[in-house]
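Example for tutorial group B:
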């Protein structure tokens, strides 16, 4: 089995006998996409909801609104079809509530909202999630 580690602000796809993993999700979101017919998996570890919150905007895997189309493009390139792709989400925790500023939702919640909007805009259905709370998570996505 081929193992691919997806780091913060990173994305990867694989087909068949592959394991995509990302470790240490806090307020970040892991977006796991899967086409069961083509056995193609994609995983992104997004850091921020949108490009407006960063100076460096070059990395498409860093943001919810750009990571979803990036994953879809890479998955289509190796044979996935949008009609067969489903999503699962993990992360979006409020890890350090004592450091939160007043007046807006925590970054984890903002990441989750932006991710759901990005997936919906591409017609991708979310079939499962483990999100929110105050604890970290890791994700292991098997492509077979």
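The residue assignment follows.
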């Amino acid at each position: 089995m081929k193992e691919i580690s997806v780091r913060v602000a990173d994305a990867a796809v694989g087909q068949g006998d592959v394991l995509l993993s990302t470790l240490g999700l806090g307020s970040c979101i892991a977006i796991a996409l899967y086409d069961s017919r083509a056995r193609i998996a994609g995983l992104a570890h997004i850091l921020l909801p949108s490009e407006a919150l960063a100076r460096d905007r070059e990395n498409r895997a860093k943001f919810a609104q750009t990571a979803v189309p990036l994953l879809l493009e890479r998955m289509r390139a190796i044979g996935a079809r949008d009609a067969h792709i489903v999503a699962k989400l993990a992360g979006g925790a409020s890890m350090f509530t004592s450091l939160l500023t007043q007046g807006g939702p925590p970054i984890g919640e903002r990441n989750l909202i932006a991710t759901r909007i990005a997936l919906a805009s591409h017609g991708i259905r979310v079939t499962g999630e483990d999100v929110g709370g105050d604890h970290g998570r890791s994700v292991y996505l098997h492509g077979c």
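The first helix runs from residue 64 to 77. Compare this with the pattern of hydrophobic and polar residues in the output above.
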